[in-house]
Write a structure and sequence with these properties.
Radius of gyration: 32 Å
Strand order of the largest sheet: 6-7-8-3-9-10
Helix content: 55-70%
Oligomer: single chain
Distance between the termini: 49 Å
Strand content: 5-15%
Number of strands: 10
Bound molecules: adenosine-5'-triphosphate
């Protein structure tokens, strides 16, 4: 009995048994509908930072074939170049790598968009939104990846089937999470979830980078069994693996052995052991052949010609009959392609065009949905923040009870409340937003590069998902402090003050988004944002008369929304006030009786109110446009 029997795994196959001939015919028919991937003269280079010069080579002129219906494994020691080769074949290398060579699908040259639409790629490191549950994650991924015309019912059925296939049905409502806890997924379960995610689109070609890492041997065996079953449906499955057990090794149809970026063998598994034996490296009996092959290739000792063993084997393989067989397969693919009539060619390449993507608004909806779940479930983002705000508002408001009056002391108290309203609604959201995008950058890059959504949709969704929280937060804070302190008690002034505060909090969030995308990490963003904030705070009104600002800093008044907010709120409190009492006046200082004089004292002008609001809006859009541009740049080039 083969060790990877299906009934040991999560789900049984209930297909009717067939006789051998029928099975062979069926297999051949399925294969002919699949995609045979072939590549030649494929090299991968590392580029320097400016992408002008090559600074190293990871893959050196390799060739190979991965047939539909086969499970092909790229095997080699750690650092041999397995992931680099697979990423190159899948068109998933980062912009720091340059891929040179020919990659063909059924003999036709392919490009990145073909690969993105026809292949799935399971990365070595899983990146999930940890606050989502398994089912929420799968629904999100299905809506973003699956053909837009697929019915919700069919998607639901598919998800249920996949959950059963990968043994996660009982964990469907568990959060993905992090750490070791039975309320979140384990490392192995995350791998299975990543696998199920790739199967959502039923890709013609499936790439998996180290799918068995972190799995116990039973789960690893089951996963490989599922890969085989998937391949048997006429799919092309390629995975990298660096330490397969004998059972897993024996279940591969073909292997590609990689050493130092070169191919030491590519072909059926039993031929690999024979080839090594023919070169003088006989696998001992009862020894795991995979361990043996990898150990031989990783040995640093030299052969009789003072050549490294890996180099000698790679040279020998490139002159071997098996290698020539690969060349013949490559040529055969080319001929098949030439014999195809134009309609078939069109058909082959038009397959992916037929997939209808979800409309922008639907994708935006799903992105906002995901961001909302995150915001709602991450207490550090919302609940604690709101609670903290309420406490601060009550404490601050209580300090001002009875002091905000139309008298000489009241002038200072009113400006104090305005300072707290502005600074609290400016600095807090600015720093709270700073970590949001850098934390998600790896996920964003990955999803953007697979074509799930454009960067601007992500950015808009991120900003929109923050708005409800920001509104609740700012309105709560401002209302508590406004009424406790006793600022002007009429609906119009209160409403306009809330509008100014809403603008302040939104511009500050936009500023936080810009700094986080411009500098890419929280410590670096903080390093630049703190001095910038100091300048904004010093020049916001209460500390310095605007007219006395030194010439070199005077430009700040155009970009400081803190200043515009202070001015607008001060205007709302003092505009039209003619009866400021002199009762509490210091006998040595002149008494101020007019609101207009209070405004002049800070170099504010009541005619500026509308302009302040407009300028805040302009600054809001400028920060977001710059923030988006920086994010787009990071996704494209890093
Ligand atoms: N983007 C890159 N820039 C520079 N060097 C890289 C890059 N990606 C990989 N390398 C280097 O190329 C070599 C091969 O890396 P690769 O990840 O392909 O190996 P691997 O065989 O998959 O190893 P592992 O099993 O440990 O994942 C390593 O030395 C790695 O440091």
């Amino acid at each position: 009995m083969h060790i990877l029997e299906e009934n040991q795994c999560f789900r049984k196959n209930n297909d009717d048994p067939m006789d051998d001939k029928e099975e062979e015919e069926e297999e051949e028919a399925i294969r002919s509908r699949g995609v045979t991937l072939s590549w030649k003269d494929l090299s991968v280079y590392v580029m320097d930072r400016g992408r002008r010069n090559v600074s190293g080579q990871l893959i050196d002129n390799v060739r190979g074939v991965a047939k539909s219906g086969d499970l092909t494994a790229i095997i080699g020691a750690s650092g041999a170049g397995k992931s680099s080769l697979m990423a190159a074949l899948a068109f998933r290398t980062g912009p720091e790598l340059l891929v040179h060579g020919t990659i063909r699908a059924n003999g036709l040259p392919v490009d990145s968009s073909y690969m993105m639409r026809n292949s799935g790629y399971m990365h070595q490191e899983d990146i999930f939104v940890e606050t989502m549950t398994v089912i929420e994650h799968l629904w999100f991924m299905a809506r973003m990846k699956v053909d837009g015309r697929t019915r919700m019912l069919d998607i639901g059925e598919k998800i249920d089937r996949l959950l059963e296939d990968v043994g996660l049905t009982s964990r469907r409502d568990v959060r993905i999470g992090s750490g070791v806890d039975d309320r979140v997924l384990s490392g192995g379960e995350k791998k299975r979830l990543a696998f199920a995610t790739e199967l959502l689109t039923d890709p013609k070609i499936l790439f998996l980078d180290e799918p068995t890492t972190g799995q116990d041997s039973h789960s690893a065996n089951c996963l490989v069994f599922q890969l085989k079953s998937f391949a048997a449906k006429g799919r092309t499955v390629l995975c990298t693996i660096h330490q397969p057990s004998s059972a897993i090794f024996n279940s591969f149809n073909r292997i590609i052995l990689i050493a130092e970026g070169r191919v030491a063998f590519a072909g059926p598994i039993d031929e690999a052991v024979e080839f090594f034996a023919s070169q003088g490296y006989e696998c001992p009996r009862n020894y795991n052949p995979a361990d043996f092959l990898i150990t031989v290739l990783a040995t640093n000792s030299k052969s009789e010609n003072n050549e490294k063993i890996a180099e000698k084997l790679c040279d020998a393989f490139s002159n071997s009959e098996t290698s020539r067989e690969i060349d013949r397969m490559f040529e055969k693919q080319l001929q098949t392609r030439h014999s195809l009539n134009p309609t078939s060619k069109l058909h082959l390449h038009a397959e992916f065009v037929r997939k209808k993507e979800l409309r922008y608004f639907s994708r935006l909806y799903w992105l906002i949905y995901r961001d909302f779940l995150q915001v709602m479930r991450d207490p550090s983002i919302q609940v604690i923040r709101i609670f903290q705000k309420v406490i601060v508002a009550i404490i601050a408001g209580l300090c001002f009870v009875g002091s905000v009056n139309f008298d000489q002391y009241g002038i200072q108290a009113t400006q104090g409340v305005i300072f707290i309203l502005v600074s609290e609604n400016a600095f807090f959201p600015m720093y709270a937003t700073l970590a949001l995008i850098p934390e998600e950058l790896p996920l964003l890059r990955r999803e953007y590069r697979t074509g799930m959504y454009p960067v601007y949709l992500y950015y808009i969704a991120r900003v929109l998902s923050l708005i409800p929280g920001l509104i609740i937060e700012s309105l709560l804070f401002a209302s508590i402090i406004y009424w406790l302190a006793g600022l002007r008690a009429n609906v119009e002034t209160f409403g306009s003050s809330l509008l100014v505060i809403l603008l302040t909090i939104n511009v500050s969030t936009a500023c936080g988004c810009f700094f986080s995308t411009a500098f890419g990490s929280v410590p670096l963003s903080m390093a630049y944002l703190v001095p910038f904030d100091y300048v904004l705070m010093i020049t916001m009104g209460p500390f310095l008369k605007l007219g006395s600002l030194p010439l070199y800093i005077r430009w700040v008044k155009y970009i400081s929304w803190l200043l515009h907010a202070s001015e607008a709120l001060t205007i709302l409190q003092w505009n039209g006030v003619h009866n400021i009492s002199c009762e509490t006046a210091d006998s040595e200082l002149p008494c101020i009786t007019e609101g207009a004089v209070v405004l002049r004292r800070y170099d504010f002008d009541e005619a500026n109110f509308s302009m302040d609001l407009v300028l805040m809006l302009v600054i809001y859009f400028i920060f977001h446009i710059l923030g988006y541009a920086c994010l787009w740049n990071r996704c494209r080039w890093k």
